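Morning run. Coffee first, then this:
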Amino acid sequence: MAVTDHFSFLRWWQGFRGRTLPSLGREIFNVSWTLLKLMIPVLIVVRVLEELGAIPVIARVLEPLMALVGLPEAMGLVLATNLITNIYAGLMIFFQLVPDYPMTVAQVSILGGMMLVAHSLPIEVRIVQIAGVRLLAALIMRLVTALIFGVLLFHIYDFFNWLQYPVELVWQPEVQRTTLSEWVWQQLQSFAMIVLVIASLISLLRFLRWIHVERLMVFLLKPVLRLLGIRPEAASLTIVGMTLGLSFGGGLLIEESRKGHINKKDIFAAMLLLSVCHSLIEDTLLIMVMGADISAALWFRLIFSLTLVAIVTRLLRYASDGFWQSYLVTGMVNIHNSAADKAGINPVSTVNNEVVERG
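And here it is:
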């Protein structure tokens, strides 16, 4: 028996060393390299804005919006970066600005919650569009819901006087005026820290998939999705998106819609849920690196997204097919087709790219 166990361990180790470790290394490198290419122009722009003294000006422009959610004005720049690029880039700008704008845990949680709902819009809104949701509706799903979520979090934390103490950052750059070369060195150090975060998250995700955590989430969430009016054909694919990311779930939903297996109303409900609440494991851990509380990063986000979908789906039961076709979905409501077909796009190859969902 001991000899058998020894050989079993050797086979497992050879597979782990020969396949798993190289695959993990390639994934970490690919994500980090893609992120570096995204972040360099963003960081340069922020540095130029700092040198020109433009950040206080931008902050004043964004002040009314930030006041609604109780955040320092300059955090609008973090949100703008997050919207255009991804959470990782927003994280870098956050760590660069936060020394000059001390925040409470409640404020960081509000910021993190909004970043989770609305990020990577050029890519992720396109995924929702290809699935058959109209552009304006897709944008409202992200921008308006992010603002509503931020306002709700602000009033909850303020009313209960909850998390109103200074945030303790796990890491932050030194606060000092630097030369260009010193600034470049600081950004390299910052990026090295982000790479460590990426490596840790990807490794943890691999482990969670290995122990089949997503199966538990499917078991727990499927009855809830039925109550929300999302039929079984779309429920499992929606849960994939909620756990692993909008790219995965969205890509699968696009393919099923193209084949005619899921109707447009279910696609809309599923995409609304995925727009507000996706990548529950990775993105939640990432936002908590900022110092955000898990209440905003996970629990309130789940409650908010499920409540939102329940309300919207029930209200839309009274909408005519004409309203659906004019404002919410493309094509016929009861005829299954896909914008991807018309565009000549292979939806699976377009959206099933794991790097896209990094943020």
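The chain has a mean pLDDT of 79. Good start to the day.
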